Amino acid sequence: MNESLLSPVRGAWTAMQGTLYFLPPFPSRIDTLALLSLLLVIGLLVAEWLRARWGWPRVLGYVAAGTVFGPPLLGWISDDILAQLRPIADAAHGLLLLEAGRRLDLRWLLRNRDLLRGSVGDIALSFLAIYGFACFVAGLSPAWAAATAAVTMASAPAVVLLIIEESRAQGQVTERVMMYSALGMAASLVVFVIVLGFVHAQQDVTWMVVLAHPLWAGLGACLLGWLASRLALLIAGYLPKRSLSQVFVLVAMALLAIGVSRMLGVPVFLTLFLMGVLLSFSDEAKVLSYTGLPEGHGMLAIILFVVVGASLPWRDVTWLMAAQAIGLLLVRAATKLLAMALSGGALSGGKRLLVGIGIQPLSATAVFMAFEIGRLYPEIGNSALQLAFLAAAIMDIAGPVLCRLALNRAGETAVEKEVPGGAL
Amino acid sequence: MSDSLEFHDSEPLTLGVELELQLLTTRNYDLTRGATDLLRAARHDGANGEVKLEITESMIEINTRVRPSADGIAADLDAMRGLLVEQCARNNIAVCGGGAHPFHSWPDRRISPGERYEMTYERYGYLAKQFTVFGQHIHVGCASADDAVWLTQALGPYMPYFIALSAASPYIDGVDTLFHSARLNAVTAFPLSGQCPELADWDGFLEHFGFLRDCGIVTGIKDLYWDIRPKPEYGTVEIRVCDTPLDVVQAAALAALAQALSRYLLRERPGFDAGKALQVARYNKFQACRYGFDARVSCPQKRAQEDLRSTLRDLLDTLNADAKALGCQHWLDVLRTALFTGTTGSDWLRARQAVHKNLNDVVRDSAERFSAMRPQARDQGSEIHATAKPPET
Asked: Complex ipTM above 0.85?
C-alpha cells in the first residue's frame, strides 16, 4: 500500500547508513508491538465514534475498523500482518472463550429443565435447518454442508460476553442468552470435531486420518483443557481468593493452554472453552470462581475483532453468494426464535423471543473454526466455506446490534430509563 | 397520592411479618437484578403470604398472612422461604437474609419499576439506591387507634433489644464496619427517619400528621420512616428496626418477642415518660447497632446506664407469663439461646469471614443457611419449634 510513500524514506535511510553506521537496516515490516498499538487506537477510535454517533456496540466498531483498514478495502492491514497478529488474536479469543466456558453453569440445566428443552431445540433445529439449506439450496456436498452447519449453528459467546459487560446487563434474558450461547458453542464444537472426519472422508484419505484427526482435536483439547484447569486450581488454591495473584495464575494457565494447543495443532478455541467449562464445573471449593479476567481482556478483544474484521472475505463476494448467506441467516434466525418460543417455562413468550434475538451473533469462533477446517484442504475448503465466512461477516455487523437490542428491550441493561438528574 | 388514615381495628396481638431478602447471582454471590422476573414467574396460591417488589431489583419481600401466633408466622415464613428458594433456583439466583450485602456496589442497583419507586428515586436521589438494605418488619394487631399510638410509644425503649437480637449487617462495601447492625445507618439518612414524637392519642397523631402534610413534608403514612409507626390500613403497630435475620427461625422468634412484649405492655400499661425516652432513644439505638449484646443503654428513669445483655435477660424472664399465655415460650427460648451464647447474626457472619477470609464465601454460606435452616414441627399438630444453632457450613 504504502510503497510509494515509503520509498523516499527508505532511500534517505539507506543513504544515511553510510555515515551513521549504527543505524539498523530499514525495517522490512512494522514491529508487532507498534502494530498492536496502532490497531488498538484505530479500533478504539472507530468504536467510540460509532458508539457516540449512533449508540452502536463497541465490538461493531472494532470489526468495522478491521474491515476498512484490512485487505478488502484500504489494505493497510495486509495478509502478512494478519498472520503476524494471529497468536495475539488466538490469545484474545481463547481468553474470551475461557470466560464464556466459566459462565456455563451446567447445574442450572438440571434445576430448570425448560432450559434444557430450549437448548436441545436450538442446537438440533439450527444444525438441521442450516445443513438442509447448505445442502439443498446452496448445493454444497453433505460433508461441507455439515461443516457449514457446524460453523454457523451456534451463537458467538465472545460477542455476547462483550455486549453484556459493556451494557452491564443483568437479568433472566441476559443469563439465558449467555447460557444458550455457551451451550450452543459446546454443541457446535462437538459437531465440528465430528465433521473433521467427514471432511477427510470426502477427500479419499486413509481411514486412519479420518478417525485420528477428530480424536486428536477432540481428545487433545479435552486433555489440555483438563490439565490446564487442574493446574490453575492447584496453584490458585495456595493464593488468596480474588487476589491479583490468582488473576495472573488464571491468565498464565490460559496462555499455557493456548501455546501448547498451537504447538500440538489442537484447536485453541476448543481447548480454552473446555478449560473454562471444567473450571466452572469442578471448582466446588470456589477457588477461582470469584476471580475475574483482568480489565485488559477488553484490550485484547479490540485486537481480536479488528483481526476478525480484516479477515472477512468481502473481496470474493458475488450477489448469489450474498443472497445465499442472507438466506442461511434467515433460516438460522427463524430456527433459534422457534426453539425459544417452543421452550416454554416461566419466562414470558416475549422475553423468550428476546432471548432468541440475543443469541443471533455469529462471529470470531465461526471464522476461526472455518479457518481450521478450510486449511485442511485449502484448494477447496476456503471456497466451500465461503458461505459460512460470508454469513459470519454479515452477522459480525448485525449480531452485536441484535444482541444489544434484545437486552435493551428486556430492560436489563444499565440505563433503562432517564429521570431528571439520573438514570434508574 | 396519599394513604388512607382511617384506622382499621384488628384482632389484638395478631401478627404479620415482612422480610426483605437479598437476590444473589450464583456466579460470585454479589447482588443481582432479579425481582421482577421472579415475581412474574412465582406461582403460588397466596395461602401463606405474598411476594412483593422492593425499592431496587436486587431485593424481594415476602409477607406472611395475619396469624394469631408465632407458630403460624413460622409456618408461613417457612412456606414462603421454600417457594422463593425453589423459584430462585430455577432462575439460577440465590437468596439470603442479613441486613446488608457485604460488598455490593450501590451504583449498580436498579430501581424497581413502579410509580412509587420512581418517585422515591426522584425525591431522594442516590439515597434510594443506597437503601438496598434488608429489614424485618413486624406488625402487631391493635384493638383501637388509641392503643396503636400508645403502643408505638411504649415499645420505643425496647427497640435496642430488637436491634441486638436481629443484628446481621456487619459489613458494608467489603469493610467490617465494627457495627453489629450497619443497616440502620442507611435508614438514618432519610429526613423522616427516627422516632415517633410524644403523642397523647390517635387524634394527636392525626394532628401531627396533618401538620407534616400541610408543611409539604409527607403525603402518606409510608413517608414516615420511623423505627415504630402505626399502620392504620392494617390496624397494627409496625416495628421496623430489625435487620432481616439470617434465617426464618430467628425471624419468627422476633415476632414472638414483639407479641409477648405487646401483650405485657397492653396488659400492665406501665407508666413511662415518652419525652425522656425520646431524649435517649437515638443514643440507645446507636449503642445496640454498634455493640449488639455488649451495648450499654441509658435508662432515663434511673438516670444511669445498664447492660443491654442483663436487662434483656430480665425482660425475657418478665415475659414468661405472657409468652405462656400466647403459646410462644419456645420461640423466646430461641432468643435466650442466642443471648446465652452471645452470638448475633453479625457474629456468625464474622466467624464465617474468619474461616474463609473472603466475603463471597460468607454470602454463599449465608444463602445456604437461609435455604437449609427451617423451623421443625414439634408434634403432629401445627406447633413449631426450632433450634437456634445454624447448620455447619
From this structure: no
